[in-house]
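Task: sequence design from structure.
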């Protein structure tokens, strides 16, 4: 049955979550490969496939950038636990990115300094070690000569 109004969507969502004591609305239906609640795109007027995005649309409004799960529970769809933010901000809040930013040395123990660190244009959140890059380039040049 297609959902045509926001009230229909709210009822649909309410029947498919478990509300916890700490305010999570845990999605009880299927989840995608990354652990986010997944809903049928054809049944809702916003054509959303991610349950937290659908909840945001009906309770808050349009999504300007992307949603960040502030609670870090991926299958929580409570809009109060999300924030509409830029991809860059979202990635800098991600636990695995925070771990990377706290590292002071690359895997080969070269220090991450301003002089020895660069960021790729297509992957701005990931630091690269200039010394490791120099060594890799030198190794590649010698392998081509063989």
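Answer:
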């Amino acid at each position: 049955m297609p959902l045509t109004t926001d009230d229909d969507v709210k009822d649909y969502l309410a029947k498919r979550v478990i509300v916890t004591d700490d305010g999570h609305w845990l999605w009880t239906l299927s989840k995608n490969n990354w652990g986010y609640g997944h809903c049928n795109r054809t049944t809702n007027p916003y054509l959303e496939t991610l349950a937290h995005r659908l909840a945001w649309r009906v309770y808050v409004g349009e999504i300007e950038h992307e949603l960040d799960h502030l609670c870090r529970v991926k299958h929580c769809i409570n809009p109060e636990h999300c924030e509409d933010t830029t991809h860059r901000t979202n990635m800098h809040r991600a636990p695995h990115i925070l771990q990377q930013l706290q590292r002071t040395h690359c895997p080969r123990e070269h220090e991450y300094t301003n002089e020895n660190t660069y960021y790729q244009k297509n992957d701005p959140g990931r630091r690269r070690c200039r010394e490791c890059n120099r060594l890799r380039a030198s190794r590649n040049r010698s392998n081509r000569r063989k």
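The radius of gyration is 22 Å.
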